[in-house]
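We close this part of the discussion by returning to an individual protein. Part of our work consisted of pairing the sequence of a single chain with a tokenised description of its backbone. What the numbers capture is local backbone geometry rather than side-chain detail. The amino acid sequence and the backbone structure tokens for this protein are reproduced below.
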Amino acid sequence: MLARSAVPPLRAIATVFAVLAVAALLGACSDDDATSSKTAPQRVQTAATPPPSARKDAQQPGAGDAAAPQVRAARARVRGGLAGRMARSLRTKLPLVVLQTSRAIRKAPKIRARMSLIDHATNTVKGAPNGYDGFAGISVRGQSSSRFAKKSYTVELRDEAGKNRNEKLLGMPAENDWALYASHNDKSLMRNVIAYGAARRLGDWAARTKYVELVLNGRYQGVYVLMETVKLDRGRVVAEDKGLGGRYLAEMTLGWQARRKGKFFRTPVKNQAVVYDDPRRDDLSTQEAGYLRRVIRGAERALYRGSRKAWRSRLHMAAAVDYILLEELFRNPDAFQASTFMIKGAGSKLKLGPVWDFDIGLGNSTRAHARRTSGWMTGTRVWASRLLADSQFKRELKLRWRKLRAGGLRSSLFQTTTASVRELGPAARRNFRRWPVLNKRVWQEPVLRGSYKAEVRGLRTWLRGRVAWLDGKLGL
């Protein structure tokens, strides 16, 4: 009698423990990612994809069957957690991107998603899409940043049949390839916006940017920068296309990154990896690929094995001046190591650019003394060191800097920071509620300032010091 009467309480206790276990497991999946950093897994867990352990628990026989209704109720309560609550209550002045996927987003291949872009005076997840409403392919983007808890994404707009669909987004020229940049290790949220804006002020092409907020599968993901990607196109990187000397875009990068990005070749003197970026190697004929290799290898041989002036017949002087000025102004640790693009158009010399990826620039890295406002960043780097050894190049660098300073470059940098703070407003606070990292090191940040206001103040102080140092070195 005692044994039989004890069974119902034991089952009830087992049911309670099953509910609590699932709730704890799902809570970890929904909210723990807000406090993780570079150890985050490659796979993005979404509400549409419960953890494997949760699926396994739900399928257990016996007591699990009896607890199934309670388990499902617990799962429904916990799913989304803080991120879900923030999405449901969200009211923002920023444009809102809403993405729905049926499975986890990976680095490759892209998976099908439904994308809405809502851009009214005030935006909610229930708002009517008026910026875009359709399909997209989506994947996690980035190399080191793909390990962060807050992911960046590559977005390819598609029609219902899965073909590329060119559309204007938030006033930017129509295209199908876009990026949603997370700014996770950049706690000012604006370093790339500042750098690309400065490059456009010089008259060079650089990615256009718009601040947005993102909701993915019913979960608030924070502030993102919707931006153009680097590619050959009329509205992006323009290069004349004519015969074998047609248009090419290549990227000099680190060897381990090149192996992940696609087919590449090595330069003859410094053994730098160069990726066939656009077109990809498989889209080039043997003759076209050989031509591009000869152009880039010939430029390096001229820099290192020719006279000090030999490179001038191979590399575009003005483009090289602008490129080095921008990399130096923002003291980019990746300069001439990674994300170093080169353009070759018919009838034109090889051009350095466009600039790309400044998340660890502007004093935001422990690498290569990047935190300092003094010193040359590119002075010992491949290619750049040879350019800076040319007295004519240094004269052109000084003349260009003086012209830009007279034209208001310095004031434009601070105008961008002020405008960004005003535009982001409450969205910045929401971002750091979702991702409480202001007192945590995500990657290479040299200083933990503890508040968004202090992050912006630190960035402005760094810019002031960096411009002053360049003024002293370049003759102002």
